[in-house]
């Protein structure tokens, strides 16, 4: 399994690599304004070939013999050349350049006299005559639409070198040195390490992030100090932005405590070399264990359904930008996300995302609601997929109060009564390394919500969530069941294992199989009471129950008064906060 997949979710450091499409687009030189003007200038656009003199037929100028078709033929043949160098060669083919044989003194003052070194005869092509037709300089430049100085430069250069005049404007005079300097900058940027954000950002696909304490200015100064050479900041920034898709991250707020502990310990100056090596080895082992979880997540299982689920950060009602909201308690809207995962490098579509929402006054954020939402997703929304699969692979974090408990196990065992041949494997990550595909959905949702100043009703949240997945509203699209009470009736209270220590749960039989590590065979335990079967698990319908306290109700109503909301909005909150309690109710984590 590629380590890049682990890094994408786990935020692990990885080497910086150039990308085909950098953070900024490269200049399209072909369509640049100067290039377009140059093409027009060398294409004869807007010019009409005409005779530029009134000479009668003489030995030096026979322009009157040329018909309009002949003039257009010379004009088109000249401008069909691809560039200026080829056009100069075409001019040279129509010139007869020789040395001056006889000089006649017209100006007696030597200081004012300019003696020409060459004599030039001009000619044009004629369709009715195989030989060239001699013309004067005025007609020559008028037919071709060029300046007299350009003709003089071409003739003078040929007289001196006996070669056609090359392109002397611009050019890569220092191309080798410039390429070498750019390569040094690329190598310097690659010496840093970066990491991917576990939140998927639609506006920045493939973006990697350097440490938050760095910036381009610091990197440029460091490059000059290491290479002992002065390099312009504009060149360094050009390479950074056009050859790499890099940004600068923010300090992590949800970092793994074990990783932070190991990093601090390894920097302790009081440790001996042996102790530092032991800490480093422990840190490497910890990281490898974390990577195994993402290897299992990215594994392709054609005949299995893989689900990742998690709870999003609470959304507040009402959401407002006024200052009083900072000091006021607000009502919560809970969101539980389930994502159908298709393996490494899979594309996450809207149909693969199921978002279950409920309000704080409708139900608690506990294992009953989580188990009920997941049960609805498996039995109703994904029933066709689950019925055709051989196994179900589940991935979530290790939150004991919500999903890593016997209430969730009981729900999954009840699910097997509807799908007897279904094998279920439930995998948990190492603590602190639980970045899942569901977090990418949450990241996109948070980006959208952050741009909105005011949200008063849950329906406004629902409309936003519809853009990212299938939204299922509690009470309308799904119901909650009391798995906690049903589990107490059927499952032993005293068990021979601690579910909190499990890395993988194997629920393919009527017994609960536990793995304390990601490899090895599971150890199966019977958890049912004597005479009980999983078919006896009949959870009752859970009524709506609020967990809003009286103090929060006062804060919400005061905030609504400061906002001056409409009667419709006020009526919604009055109804939602009609029944409140001064005791929030016991959480599942305490009960477990």
List descriptors.
elongated, alpha+beta, 4-stranded mixed beta sheet, 10-stranded mixed beta sheet, 20 helices, 15% strand
Provide structural commentary:
This protein has 20 helices and 17 strands. It is an alpha+beta fold. The protein folds into four domains: 99 residues, no CATH class; 129 residues, no CATH class; 33 residues; 291 residues, no CATH class. Strand 3 and strand 4 form a beta hairpin. Helix 1 packs across helix 11. The longest helix is centred in the middle third of the chain and has 26 residues. The C terminus is likely disordered.
Tally of individual domains = 4
User: What can be said about the biggest beta sheet?
Assistant: 10 strands, mixed
**Percent helix range:** 25-40%
Instruction: Bin the strand percentage.
Output: 5-15%
SS-derived structural category: alpha+beta
Oligomeric nature of the chains: single chain
Rg calc:
39 Å
Task: Give the helix tally.
Answer: 20
What is the end-to-end distance?
37 Å
Coarse shape = elongated
Count of DSSP E strands?
A: 17
Low-confidence segments: 584-592
Q: Give the averaged pLDDT, no decimals.
A: 86
């Amino acid at each position: 399994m590629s380590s890049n997949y682990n890094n994408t979710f786990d935020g692990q450091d990885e080497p910086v690599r150039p990308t085909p499409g950098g953070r900024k687009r490269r200049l399209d030189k072909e369509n640049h304004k100067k290039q377009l003007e140059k093409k027009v200038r060398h294409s004869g656009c807007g010019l009409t070939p005409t005779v530029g003199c009134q000479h009668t037929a003489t030995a030096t100028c026979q322009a009157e013999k040329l018909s309009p078709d002949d003039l257009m033929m010379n004009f088109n043949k000249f401008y069909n050349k691809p560039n200026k160098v080829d056009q100069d060669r075409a001019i040279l083919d129509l010139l007869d350049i020789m040395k001056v044989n006889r000089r006649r003194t017209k100006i007696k003052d030597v200081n004012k006299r300019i003696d020409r070194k060459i004599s030039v005869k001009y000619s044009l092509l004629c369709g009715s005559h195989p030989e060239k037709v001699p013309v004067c300089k005025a007609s020559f430049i008028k037919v071709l639409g060029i300046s007299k100085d350009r003709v003089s430069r071409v003739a003078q250069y040929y007289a001196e070198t006996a070669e056609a005049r090359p392109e002397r404007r611009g050019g890569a005079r220092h191309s080798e040195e410039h390429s070498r300097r750019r390569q040094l900058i690329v190598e310097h940027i690659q010496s840093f390490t970066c990491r991917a954000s576990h939140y998927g950002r639609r506006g920045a696909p493939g973006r990697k992030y350097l440490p938050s304490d760095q910036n381009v200015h610091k990197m440029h100064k460091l490059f000059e100090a290491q290479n002992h050479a002065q390099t312009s900041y504009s060149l360094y920034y050009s390479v950074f932005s056009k050859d790499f898709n890099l940004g600068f991250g923010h300090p992590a707020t949800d970092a793994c405590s074990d990783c932070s502990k190991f990093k601090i310990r390894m920097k302790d100056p009081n440790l001996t070399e042996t102790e530092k090596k032991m800490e480093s080895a422990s840190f490497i082992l910890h990281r490898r264990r974390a990577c195994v979880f993402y290897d299992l997540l990215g594994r392709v299982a054609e005949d299995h359904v893989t689900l990742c689920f998690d709870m999003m950060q609470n959304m507040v009602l009402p959401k407002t930008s006024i200052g009083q909201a900072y000091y006021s308690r607000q009502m919560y809207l809970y969101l539980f996300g389930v994502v159908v995962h298709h393996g490494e490098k899979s594309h996450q579509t809207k149909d693969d995302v199921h978002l279950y929402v409920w309000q704080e006054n409708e139900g608690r954020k506990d294992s009953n609601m989580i188990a009920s939402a997941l049960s609805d997703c498996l039995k109703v929304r994904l029933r066709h997929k689950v019925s055709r699969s051989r196994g179900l692979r589940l991935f979530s974090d290790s939150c004991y109060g919500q999903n890593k408990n016997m209430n969730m196990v009981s729900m999954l065992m009840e699910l097997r009564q509807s799908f007897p041949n279904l094998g279920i494997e439930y995998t948990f990550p190492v603590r602190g390394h639980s970045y899942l595909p569901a977090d990418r959905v949450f990241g996109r949702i948070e980006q959208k919500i952050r741009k909105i100043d005011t949200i008063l009703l849950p329906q406004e949240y629902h409309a936003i969530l519809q853009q990212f997945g299938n939204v299922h509203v509690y009470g309308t699209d799904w119901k909650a069941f009391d798995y906690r009470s049903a589990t107490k009736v059927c499952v032993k209270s005293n068990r021979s294992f601690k579910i909190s220590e499990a890395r993988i749960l194997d629920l393919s039989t009527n017994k609960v199989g536990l793995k304390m590590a990601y490899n090895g065979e599971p150890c199966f335990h019977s958890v049912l009471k004597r005479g009980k079967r999983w078919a006896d698990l009949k959870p009752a319908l859970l009524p709506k129950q609020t967990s809003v306290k009286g103090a929060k109700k006062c804060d919400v109503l005061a905030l609504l008064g400061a906002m001056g909301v409409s009667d419709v909005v006020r009526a919604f909150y009055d109804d939602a906060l009609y029944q409140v309690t001064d005791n929030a109710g016991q959480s599942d984590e305490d009960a477990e």
